[in-house]
Amino acid sequence: MTPYEFPLLIKQLLETAISQRSRKEIVYGDNVRYDYPTLVKRIKRLASGLAGLGVQKGDTVAVLDWDTNRYLEAYFGIPVLGATMMTTNIRLSPEQIAYTLDHSGAETLLVHTDFIPLIQDILPSLPKVKRLVCLSDDGTSPAGLDWTSEYEALLISGDETFEFPEFDEQTRATTFYTTGTTGMPKGVYFSHRQIVLHTLVVLSTIAQAGENAQFSRNDVYMPLTPMFHAHAWGYPYIATLSGWKQVYAGKFEPSFATKLALSEGVTFSHCVPTILDMVLNAPEAEGVDFKGWKFLIGGSGLPRGIAQRALARNIDVYCGYGMSESCPLLTVAQLKTDVLQNAVNPEDVALEKRLTPGMPILLAQVRVVNDAMESVPVDGASVGEVVVRTPYLTQGYHNNPEASRELWQGGWMHTGDIGRFDDEGYLHLVDRKKDVIKSGGEWISSIQLEDLISVCPGVKEVAVISVDDAKWGERPLVIVVEADPGTLLAETVREHLKTFVNNGLISPFAVPERFEFVETIARTSVGKIDKKALRKQYA
Amino acid sequence: MTPYEFPLLIKQLLETAISQRSRKEIVYGDNVRYDYPTLVKRIKRLASGLAGLGVQKGDTVAVLDWDTNRYLEAYFGIPVLGATMMTTNIRLSPEQIAYTLDHSGAETLLVHTDFIPLIQDILPSLPKVKRLVCLSDDGTSPAGLDWTSEYEALLISGDETFEFPEFDEQTRATTFYTTGTTGMPKGVYFSHRQIVLHTLVVLSTIAQAGENAQFSRNDVYMPLTPMFHAHAWGYPYIATLSGWKQVYAGKFEPSFATKLALSEGVTFSHCVPTILDMVLNAPEAEGVDFKGWKFLIGGSGLPRGIAQRALARNIDVYCGYGMSESCPLLTVAQLKTDVLQNAVNPEDVALEKRLTPGMPILLAQVRVVNDAMESVPVDGASVGEVVVRTPYLTQGYHNNPEASRELWQGGWMHTGDIGRFDDEGYLHLVDRKKDVIKSGGEWISSIQLEDLISVCPGVKEVAVISVDDAKWGERPLVIVVEADPGTLLAETVREHLKTFVNNGLISPFAVPERFEFVETIARTSVGKIDKKALRKQYA
Question: Looking at this predicted complex, what is its ipTM?
Answer without folding.
Answer: 0.91
